[in-house]
Fold this protein.
Amino acid sequence: MRETIRDVLVGDVSQVPPGEGRTFAVAGRRLALFHTRAGEIFATQADCPHRGGPLADGLVGSTSVICPLHDRLFDLRTGQGPEPDCGIRVYPVSVRPDGKIWIDIGN
Ligand code: FES
């Protein structure tokens, strides 16, 4: 069965300084956007699956974030966490020429 693609506008690149993350509320859910120092944008669920830490406040690496509460590291490309059952949801991101960030929130 084919998944429904739902692109939603989340914000603008200028709202997320390089090397940081920000939390946004869109389409009834909370998301975290990360802007790496290399200029890449990633989108994930906002809350850490361990104990709900605010991932957007974590330490952002080139392709990872470290949760600010208990230092678990998550891969921003795949959502992989430190254990097989402790990953995060990641969303496909599209940054348009006007700087707007759209993500596919799927179903
Ligand atoms: S709440 Fe994120 S590692 Fe514990």
User: Anything to note?
Assistant: The first strand starts at residue 7 and ends at 12. The beta strands are 7-12, 20-26, 29-35, 41-45, 59-60, 64-66, 73-75, 90-91, 93-95, 100-104. Residues 74 and 81 are 4 Å apart (CA to CA). The radius of gyration is 13 Å.
